[in-house]
Amino acid sequence: MEFYQEVERSIIKKYRKEIWRPFIKAINEYQLIKDGDHIGICISGGKDSMLMAKLFQELKRHGQNNFDIEFIVMDPGYKEENLQLIKDNAKKLDIPIQIFKSDIFEIVDSVDENPCYLCARMRRGYLYRFAQSLGCNKIALGHHFDDAIETILMSMFYGSEIKTMMPKLHSDNFEGMELIRPLYLVKEAAIIRWRDYHQLKFLLCACRLTETITETGGGSKRNEMKRLIAAYRKIYPNVDINIFRSIHNINLDTVIGYKKDGIAHSFLDDYDEK
Q1: Has residue 207 got a pLDDT over 70?
Q2: Mean of the per-residue pLDDT values for the chain?
Q3: 14 in helix, strand or coil?
Q4: CATH superfamily of the domain spanning 3-211
Q5: Which whole-number Å values give the CA distances from 68 to 5, 25, 134, in the listed order?
Q6: For 247, how many CA atoms within 13 A lie in the half-sphere containing its CB?
Q7: Where are the chain's structural domains?
Q8: Of the listed ranges 34-48, 51-65, 105-119, 151-165, the one predicted with least confidence
Q9: How far is 82 from 105, CA to CA, in rounded Å?
Q10: What is the mean pLDDT of residues 97-101?
Q11: Which residues, in sequence order, are CB contacts of 235 under 8 Å at separation 6+?
Q12: Which of 29, 2, 73, 5 is nearest to 181 (CA)?
């Protein structure tokens, strides 16, 4: 059995409960795939997007086959050894990638404020454009369960609002394009176990600015949230699940204010009508 076949088998067998089922549940629960979709699977070179690529291959092989996929890698200015690592992993995992170049790192290197935010925004635009040129109507990103709950806390702590990373959304700038997040219900710990079981080495981040930061180290706001959640999980094991469920169960009768379609609403709007 080839190595990539062992990896595929582990997804369906060993990691069926932790990875495969949550992947399928997210697709069904959030209606991420429709008949006739042409999806650009965006691969950054990290563990999450590489696993997502293999999951889509298995979905085509064993489940739905009513859609088409492209495996897209953007080179935003990687060092040669990092780009080679992506190529080597794609070959090892039997993922037929298409690589295109951009100058994002060169642009972001000259920015002092929020370079990671700018990098993410620019990468998304390039990915939309390239995927659309291939005939795609959707792009898939590898954000997982932990990314979603970290975003909730970051919005509260640093943005004075409550919002999360949506499982899918329409593009504002590329007509007819959507973004989907099929790993939305897959926990990062399961992805790490899958990676380590196969002794795979991936890029830790798609951004050159954080190449030397470890998965749990560094001073980013997202890593602060990771450490905070990990600390609370020792006391309340289900704290991450409760945070996630909270964004699905917002009671507007107990909310002071909220926004809908960019318009602010207050509990006072209809207070005297009750």
Answers
A1: no
A2: 90
A3: coil
A4: HUPs (3.40.50.620)
A5: 21, 20, 11
A6: 20
A7: 3-211
A8: 105-119
A9: 14
A10: 95
A11: none
A12: 29
